[in-house]
């Protein structure tokens, strides 16, 4: 299903950007997300993984701006040459066909359960906030 060097994105966390498959095991895949500064190990058949095509002719948006361009070629060093002559890394691009994916989900009413959002607000899941609750705010006289 996945091969080392494949590009993909995380369906539920698109702000990680375009990821690169760095290892494939029997039941897991490790994906490096340079924009997010993280590597995730996920089930190889996870619905969260969406393949990304970054080949010649593909319309893309450049992450560090709002402009769109077209990929002309893959360079020997792994970078991609755009129609305007720039050479960029894959993680600096976002495929135009995925641009509306989150809005499409929202329009279709495909939203995450309230419990998933509520768990992000739970202080027990935030160690710093929990420490402040248990210890109290720092005081000027405390040593």
> What's the Cα radius of gyration?
20 Å
The biggest sheet amounts to: 5 strands, antiparallel
Q: Oligomerization state of this entry?
A: single chain
Approximately what portion of the residues adopt beta-strand conformation? 25-35%
Given helix and strand content, the structural type is alpha+beta
Q: Kindly, what is the distance between the CA atoms of the first and last residues, rounded to a whole number of angstroms?
A: 57 Å
Q: Output the number of helix runs.
A: 3
Short summary:
The protein has helices at residues 101-107, 114-121, 127-135; strands at 7-10, 19-24, 28-33, 38-43, 49-51, 59-62, 68-74, 80-82, 87-88, 93-95. With 143 residues, it is α+β, with helices and mostly antiparallel strands.
């Amino acid at each position: 299903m996945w091969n080392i060097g494949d590009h993909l994105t995380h369906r539920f966390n698109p702000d990680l950007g375009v990821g690169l498959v760095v290892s494939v095991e029997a039941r897991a895949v490790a994906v490096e997300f340079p924009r997010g500064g993280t590597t995730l190990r996920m089930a190889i058949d996870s619905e969260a993984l969406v393949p990304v095509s970054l080949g010649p002719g593909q319309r893309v948006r450049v992450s560090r701006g709002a402009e769109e361009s077209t990929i002309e070629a893959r360079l020997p060093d792994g970078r991609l040459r755009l129609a305007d002559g720039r050479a960029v890394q894959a993680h600096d691009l976002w495929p135009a066909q995925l641009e509306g994916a989150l809005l499409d989900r929202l329009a279709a009413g495909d939203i995450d359960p309230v419990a998933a959002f509520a768990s992000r607000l739970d202080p027990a899941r935030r160690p710093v906030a929990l420490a402040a609750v248990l210890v109290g705010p720092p005081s000027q006289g405390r040593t």
